[in-house]
Design a protein that fits this description.
Glucose Oxidase, domain 1, two-stranded antiparallel ribbon, RraA/RraA-like
Length: about 220
């Protein structure tokens, strides 16, 4: 059985208080506030309506169509972790009801996978949020240990253990742990400014004037 090495678990640096604040802000606002290229490819979508995730990244990479690393990752998972998986864009059933229940028992907040999953109706019934590239019943092997708890690139975004992961119907962002506080501060400012803009729009002003776009182009 072929394997690659796994790094030991690292200490998450995003605080519980920061996670609670992130949960109050939509993904689009966090993305803009961060100023970072931190949005995953738009093909990564929720598998059931209304799914949302906020937690700390536990990154892992699989061999194509082999889900052994997802089983192993649950041994390392801590409460409030989010499994962020490079599934090599393979549309197969890497994840289903059994793994979802096992993850919930360990306090895992959700799954983001650049690959496929299945049992989506059960995911919704048990309210386990999954964001994936697609849905597929295709079976997987259990022969390759993959890479677990190492910095990776998943769906176009760098992910390190302990980074903040936020996902909602608009998409998925991964914010480096050391950028979370500045992102939150910028997001608060952005939301306050937009609230003022919305009041002016409802009063009849044009966005061309509010945003100063009239002389652009």
């Amino acid at each position: 059985m072929t394997s690659t090495t796994s790094a030991p678990a690292t200490t998450a640096t995003v605080t519980d208080e920061q996670l609670a604040r992130l949960a109050e802000i939509d993904v689009a606002t966090l993305y803009e506030a961060s100023g970072l290229d931190c949005a995953m490819e738009p093909e990564i979508r929720p598998v059931w309506p209304g799914a949302k995730i906020v937690g700390r990244a536990l990154p892992l990479r699989t061999h194509p169509a082999d889900n052994l690393p997802l089983h192993i990752a649950l041994e390392h998972a801590r409460p409030d972790d989010v499994l962020v998986v490079d599934g090599r864009q393979e549309l197969c059933g890497y994840w289903g009801e059994v793994l979802a229940v096992a993850a919930q028992v360990r306090g895992v907040r959700g799954l983001v996978i650049d690959g496929g999953c299945r049992d989506v109706e059960r995911m919704e019934e048990i309210e386990f949020p999954v964001f994936s590239r697609g849905v597929s019943v295709r079976r997987t092997g259990k022969n390759f240990r993959g890479r677990i708890l190492e910095p990776l690139v998943v769906a176009g975004v760098a992910v390190a253990p302990g980074d903040a992961v936020v996902a909602d119907p608009d998409g998925v962002v991964v914010i480096p742990a050391d950028a979370v506080e500045t992102t939150l501060a910028a997001a608060d400012e952005r939301l306050a400014k937009e609230a003022g803009f919305m009041e002016r729009i409802r009063g009849g002003e044009l966005t061309l004037d509010i945003y100063g776009f009239r002389n652009n182009g």
